[in-house]
Amino acid sequence: MLQVTTPQIKKDSIRALGAQLVEIGATYDESFIDACREAESSTTLNYVHPVSDVDVVAAQGTIGLEILEQLEDVVKNIYSLTSKNM
């Protein structure tokens, strides 16, 4: 589930991976509330928060480690990792 205003390229990428995409809510807050309600009442859906989920945070750390391993000359790397950037 994504908010209706999510960039089309992100929606297309999600669909290309084979996911069924449901667009709800005009804002992040609206879609967050709707997604939580759907997951709560479902026996097959799980809500994964885009930045507060332990697996999402672990993946962000993994990306940082891969950068350090693959780019030997990296001394400092500053970047924003949010659900919009990943």
What is the fold's blueprint, element by element?
Elements: H1 8-16, H2 28-41, H3 54-70
The structural domain count equals 2
The largest sheet is: none
Rg over C-alpha atoms, rounded to the nearest angstrom? 16 Å
Mean of residue pLDDT values: 83
What class, by secondary structure content?
mainly alpha
Tally of contiguous helical segments: 3
**Number of DSSP E strands:** 0
| Poorly predicted residue ranges | none
Q: What's the order of the H and E elements?
A: HHH
Summarize the amount of helix as a percent range. 40-55%
The fraction of residues assigned to DSSP E strands is under 5%
What gross morphology would you assign? Answer: elongated
Tell me the quaternary state. Answer: single chain
Distance between the termini: 16 Å
Protein traits:
86 residues; mainly alpha; 0% strand
Question: Can you walk me through this structure?
Answer:
With about 90 residues, the chain is mainly alpha-helical. The chain has two domains: about 1-45, no CATH class; about 50-85, no CATH class. It has helices at about 10-15, 30-40, 55-70. The radius of gyration is 16 Å and the shape is elongated. The two termini are about 15 Å apart.
Question: What's a concise summary of this model?
Answer:
This protein has helices spanning 8-16, 28-41, 54-70. 47% of the residues lie in helices and 0% in strands.
